């Protein structure tokens, strides 16, 4: 996904004079050729994430469209107040593009992981959040973002599904159970593990790569009793929005995602998925227990 | 009556409307003289050009105590004078910290310290990328320099050779641990001026400087904060 981001944004720099890229050393080498062609619009501020976001706010106030990029913990966690004030409070837009997701950097440890990024943005107004589940879903998101001044977060990951799905703000139903079947909503790269975990269960599986704004109306149409949300970031991040969408439906909810407990273990992303119960076996166990309890 | 006295009376009247305090002399406001010189003699911006893409920008980073800023904006016609009568009310445009969305001519909303210089660097970069000759000014306080975010911006602005960027530091010696050796030394790679923050001609001269290669910092020294 990072390669697709670099390729697409580099093309946007050539095509659209509004496009700017702001970096804090991460991925600077990948943008070297673009920097050579557009030295005034490819800006590497060094290892200065507060400034990276402030510069993006200033660029946006002059009419440019900044794409801002780093590892998720540095882009979101570290510069939270700059995101809140230098973008939101100024009523300025930017496209924040992270890599690393929750635990792609499994062997690097907790300093390089950001399971809480989407929850942090949920404290702020007006953020669109894209969590692509496949590299081929990335370019259309980035190109669409060039055409407006919205505040947009694109959460790239090395985890992905086997195939890409079309870009839409609506939930997509990928497998339909009997009328009234429990609904399992998978966000981004959680889709393939969810499909594997529910292969022989009578459930409806829905998918979104744009969890903010959440398609509450679409969810309301699907859910009649049970809903399970599986997100690749902190478990329960979407619970407030799901509860609001289903406020007039008697129902039960289960929210699965990354746990709050710091693992203090290294290993691979697959290890972390297993430890957080987000591999197919773990998902299967949690979902079955929840549905059997009815 | 001299022009200076007229100006002083006008701003004094406006500040009294704003604060409801008859006793404060205009000199009680540490930023007042710099702001007046900026808007009266330096900035290429007016109420008519406040949305032009190639206007000069003034960013008030030190957003607390904006009374002098509001008075100058009213004196120069950016906002109606009667807005000054309602500071911080439920329907007021003017808060204890300025909000760019609510006030014409205000470039950034501030209050939390340490945000203006980064935004100003981005503004200067954005203007340069679009080929505009406009200048960007940002006003900070000496205590505000305690915030580490400023030092990210100071280093990068020099490296990026933002010659159309001018930072103004109002030095009323309010930083808790002070800046031994002086504030200008904290801006390596910048051209620097240290002036009497009450001397209008000296302020104008310092703000007019631009060496074509480096950002410029003007340290405007005023009376120590009482």
UniProtKB/TrEMBL annotation, chain A:
The keyword Cell division does not apply. Keywords: Transferase. It is an enzyme of class 2 (transferase). This is Transketolase. Its EC number is 2.2.1.1. CDD domains: TPP_PYR_DXS_TK_like (cd07033). GO terms for molecular function: magnesium ion binding; transketolase activity. SUPFAM superfamilies: Thiamin diphosphate-binding fold (THDP-binding) (SSF52518), TK C-terminal domain-like (SSF52922). Transmembrane segments: none annotated. Residues 1-164 form the Transketolase-like pyrimidine-binding domain.
From TrEMBL, chain B:
SUPFAM superfamilies: Thiamin diphosphate-binding fold (THDP-binding) (SSF52518). Residues 24-218 form the Transketolase N-terminal domain. GO terms for molecular function: magnesium ion binding; transketolase activity. It is an enzyme of class 2 (transferase). The keyword Repeat does not apply. Its EC number is 2.2.1.1. Its cofactor is thiamine diphosphate. Pfam families: Transketolase_N. Keywords: Thiamine pyrophosphate, Transferase. PANTHER family: TRANSKETOLASE N-TERMINAL SECTION-RELATED. Belongs to the transketolase family. This is Transketolase.
């Amino acid at each position: 996904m990072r390669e697709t981001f670099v390729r697409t944004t580099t093309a946007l720099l050539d095509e659209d004079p509004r496009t700017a890229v702001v970096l804090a050393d991460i991925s600077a080498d990948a943008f070297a050729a673009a920097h050579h062609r557009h030295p005034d619009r490819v800006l590497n501020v060094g290892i200065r994430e507060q400034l990276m976001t402030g510069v993006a706010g200033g660029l946006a106030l002059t009419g440019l469209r900044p794409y801002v990029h780093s590892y998720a913990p540095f882009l979101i966690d570290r510069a939270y107040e700059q995101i809140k004030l230098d973008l939101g409070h100024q009523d300025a837009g930017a496209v924040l593009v992270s890599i690393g997701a929750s635990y792609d950097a499994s062997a690097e440890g907790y300093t390089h992981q950001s399971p809480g990024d989407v929850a942090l943005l949920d404290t702020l107004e007006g953020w669109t959040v894209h969590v692509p589940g496949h590299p081929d879903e990335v370019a259309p998101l980035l190109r669409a973002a060039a055409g407006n001044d919205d505040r947009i977060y694109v959460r790239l990951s090395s985890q992905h599904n086997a195939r890409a799905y079309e870009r839409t703000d609506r939930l997509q139903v990928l497998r339909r159970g009997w009328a009234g079947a429990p609904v399992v909503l998978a966000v981004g790269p959680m889709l393939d593990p969810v499909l594997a975990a529910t292969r022989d269960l009578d459930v409806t599986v829905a998918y979104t790569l744009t969890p903010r704004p959440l398609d509450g109306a679409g969810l309301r149409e699907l859910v009649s009793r049970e809903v399970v949300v599986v997100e690749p970031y902190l478990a329960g991040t979407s619970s407030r929005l799901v509860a609001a969408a289903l406020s007039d439906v008697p129902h039960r909810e289960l929210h699965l995602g990354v746990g709050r407990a710091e693992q203090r273990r290294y290993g691979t992303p697959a290890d972390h998925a297993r430890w957080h119960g987000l591999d197919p076996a773990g998902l299967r166990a949690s979902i079955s227990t929840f549905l059997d309890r009815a | 009556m001299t022009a200076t006295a007229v100006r002083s009376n006008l701003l004094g009247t406006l500040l009294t409307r704003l604060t409801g305090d008859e006793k404060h002399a205009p000199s009680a406001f540490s930023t007042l003289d710099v702001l007046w010189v900026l808007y009266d003699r330096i900035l290429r911006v007016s109420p008519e050009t406040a949305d032009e893409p190639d206007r000069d920008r003034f960013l008030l980073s030190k957003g607390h105590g904006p009374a002098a800023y509001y008075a100058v904006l009213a004196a120069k016609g950016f906002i109606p004078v009667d807005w000054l009568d309602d500071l911080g009310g439920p329907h007021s445009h003017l808060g204890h910290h300025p909000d760019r969305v609510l006030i014409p001519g205000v470039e950034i909303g501030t209050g939390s310290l340490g945000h203006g210089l980064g935004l100003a660097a981005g503004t200067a970069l954005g203007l340069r990328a679009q080929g505009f000759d406009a200048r960007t000014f940002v006003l900070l306080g000496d205590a505000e320099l305690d915030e580490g975010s400023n030092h990210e911006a100071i280093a990068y602005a020099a490296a990026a050779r933002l010659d159309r960027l001018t930072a103004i530091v109002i030095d009323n010696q309010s930083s808790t641990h002070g800046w031994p050796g002086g504030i200008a030394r904290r801006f390596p790679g910048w051209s620097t001026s240290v002036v009497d923050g009450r001397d209008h001609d000296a302020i104008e001269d310092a703000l007019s400087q631009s060496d074509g290669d480096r950002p410029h910092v003007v340290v405007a020294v005023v009376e120590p904060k009482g």
